From TrEMBL:
Native species: Mesorhizobium sp. WSM2240
Origin superkingdom: Bacteria
Name of the protein described by the UniProt record: Uncharacterized protein
């Protein structure tokens, strides 16, 4: 399964793919989590307008 880091701005209600992780292993998941933490810190000025999640990419379901 391949994962991606997705950011959603609540006002725009659109998903923005921040990063694709490729093939999943423990190291890639840890990297995605650290990148998610960095994005949260970088967007702290906007407060609660951003939601971040780690999700499987679409081709996983096909």
């Amino acid at each position: 399964m391949k994962l991606q880091l997705v950011a959603r701005h609540l006002r725009d209600d659109q998903d923005l793919v921040v990063e694709d992780a490729g093939v999943v292993d423990d190291v890639n998941v840890a990297i995605l989590i650290s990148h998610m933490e960095a994005e949260i810190e970088a967007n702290r000025a906007e407060g609660a307008n951003w939601r971040f999640s780690i999700q499987p990419i679409e081709e996983t379901y096909k």
